[in-house]
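Open question from group meeting: does this chain pack into something compact, or does most of it stay loose? Before anyone orders reagents, we agreed to write out a predicted structure and look at it together. Recording both the input and the output here so the notebook holds the full record.
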Amino acid sequence: MNTCPGCAKNFEHTGYAHHLAQTINPSCAAQLQLSGLFPESEDGDSDSLDGGDDDFDSHCLTEFTGDYFGYYDEQDLERPDDNHDEPPLESDGEEEEDHDAALEHGWERPADPVQQDIDSGAERQEAEAPLGHQPIIEKFPQRHAGAPVHHSCTTAFESYKNVLQGAENVWAPFASRIDYEVAKWAKLRGSGSTAFSKLLAIDGLHDALGLSYQNTHELNQIIDRQLPCRRPRFKHEEIIVADEAFDVYSGDVMECVKALYSDPKFSQHLNYAPKRHYADANKTIRMYHDIHTGKWWWSTQKELETKKPGATVIPIILSSDKTQVTMFRNKSAYPVYMTIGNIPKEIRRKPSQRAWILLAYLPTSKLDHITNKAARRRTATNLFHACLRHILEPLKVPGKDSVAMASGDGVVRRGHPIVGCYAADYPEQLLTTGIKSGECPKCDIPHTELGSSHFPVNLRDLDAILAALSLECGIKPIFKPFWLDLPHTNIFQSITPDVLHQLYQGIIKHLIEWIKEACSEAEIDARCRRLPPNHNIRLFLKGISHLSRVSGTEHNQICRFLLGIVIGIQLPGNLNNARLTRAIRAILDFLYLAQYPCHTDQTLVLLDNALTRFHDNKDIFLDLGIQSNFNLPKLHSFRHYVHMIKMYGTTDNYNTEYTEHLHIDLTKDAYRATNHKDEYSQMTLWLERREKMLWHDNFVQWRLVGDLALQERSPPDMDYRRAIKMTKHPTVKRVPLDLIMQDYGATFFTAALARYVVGRNQPGLSAAQLEREAAHIILPFDAVATFHRIKFHAIDARGFRDSSSTVDSVHSQPSRKDKRGHTIPARFDTVLVNEGDGGITGMNGYRVAQVRVVFTLTSKAMDLLFPAGPVKPPAHLAYVEWFTPFQQPESHHGLYKISCLMRHGEHLASIIDVSDIRRSVHLFPNFGAVVPREWTSSTVLELCSSFFVNSFSDRHAYLTIV
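Structure tokens returned:
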């Protein structure tokens, strides 16, 4: 074991030599100049030069503040010049002057790196203050941009009605509402076609329901012959590559664009022209969210307007990804999806809104008949480009010269369909751009500099690549890239950030592996098993060290507690844990900031700062011997995030996570509906019938309800607000007070309730007066009704409450037995309580508390306890035990440290209004170097004395716990 004098860190023999060769620490770098000149000492922790050779002339060296002490072998240190002897210890003045002159122009240790601190809460709050507020909007200066050409006589629904036979019947072509609803269920929700036919074959069922079809075949004939097709039909074609024919199933890309653009469900939401959004009235701070607020649309619009005013840009977003359609037999499909950027991202990111459309199924041949691997890869690449070139060919003329496009409301504009974004994972990005593996698909940075945070980079030169397309340009030999002649398209700019694969399945995956290698896996798993439960935290009670084939969802769940399990953990060689926690905190900050649905120039600085902090601290993984370099393309891609957000809006415009969901609806479900023989023709037919039923369902709703009212555009939803939802009836109607204290742990329930009653009836009393008055309160009941759960629903930017999903919840439930007689431990969650002056973000005015009981009083008890109060207390109250107030966050990891608030060995408790609870809050136990093995997930809140407040439990926590 060797100790570096510059940083006092311990290394193995080879690790120490590598450390000296790679380090950027000036003290460590100085050892290359001082090899063999320092004395040996057994004190490996000394920070000064004391105890060295008294005769040594310190003026011969630049000032050094590292650690000189340690044990070394001769081969551990490289000498700068083996041909020179050591300088003499004494010399005359003339030689000293010559030596000083040489030092003036000679080697000088680098400047100490500036350690960038975690952005303070005040800085973050100031930067994020404009988010979620209505922006100042600057329209495109030329008024003809996106302007209508003329208005069609009919809307899309009216045109559909004119084509539909028997349209006087609302349910046509079906006989009745029952006839239609059964058909819709069969095609959208029902089981297989055979099962449905057997269901209708039940004697008397068909006549009882009055159906116009007797089996699946007859229903399919009605759909095929009588329902108009509003989305393009698939066609089967053959693509010839290397003298071999390959099957491609695709829809006409222009018809797909028109189908999305003309869908009446989207007509009132479409964006037709670019806009600049600002966070301030002086228009100095840009705001970016939807794609039309980015710089790409603005510059493209400007380019088109110089040629012919009145253009409407239709940004096409493409995504391709091969996926498995069977668990066994290795059967795969290769779908290509598309959408248009005119549709707001709030609609595009919901698969149920059908704003994405299946463009094609590409060939999945493995080309096993080509024995040469290089030739096989080359053929696969050319096959991909040949297929997409054929599919996207119809975009070239309208993209350049425009085409008349009618939206769902019948307004016609001059549209230019232009490929703007290509969303894909890293292998697909390489295939799309033709770049070699290990390189960046967007810029010209060398592979050996991918880990650098400052190496200058430039977007790849499209003109040079089109002119050469040779190996010398770092491009694979592609015969004709599909993007070769696409107007206004630069494929190297169009490649967008990919949060799923670059972050969750990329660097986060690497980071977890590095942590497992650096720390004891047993200790990591022990900490995972002892995290307290929370609505937003998945507990990995078997640990995370042995997980295999971890999905993006699971990496997302691990990120929520990753920082908490490394705080204070012991590292090999007793290395300082601070750099590890700073590096992890920086990556998590980048991860959460990168997913903001709205950004400003100021918040993008926060994103850049997070990446800088990781690069400042990443050498901890070199010092631990885990990594030898950081030349990872996915890590390098982080340098492009700020630029791409400014160009195309926030990352939720083009996240591949959304297209991964499309695999289920448009590929896997379609495959399961086939007999697995000649599956693509069956899959495309199944999808066409499904699309017809979905479009017809929208038409029926329009016939019944009419046109929807025009909705006002809202600012980007930052998900700040929550609404509490309590069940109509209590979980337990009557719990005696002695059980409240015994089973729920509410030791001072009656005293706390008495103080609450006095404080409510007589506000303004001093603490001593309140205690005296509370001693005279007699509770007129011996039991209360309790609730075991508080739910929270999200409120969007327009103030609408989404009751369909629970975004947060708080449990307060004593231990109980399940159906098999097993004991389920008690669970009493911790919450963030507004003490009266808490804001939307920040910790001022908030305190953490543990909820023991959520209860309600009878109306009779309310009348007796609060007879003359100006305002009746709320229906739901909670008994909570307090934690200490918030102080400054810890410097290394930026989390708030709190502890249980005790007095005379007992918890301080109060009764509060449930409405004062802002949200649940997850706490990291302060594990120390080694977690006590007697702690468990269900008891850690009782046994541990201090905690860190988890601001990564979900995105709402990260936004608000600042």
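Observations to bring back to the group:
The two ends are 42 Å apart (CA to CA).
The first strand starts at residue 2 and ends at 3.
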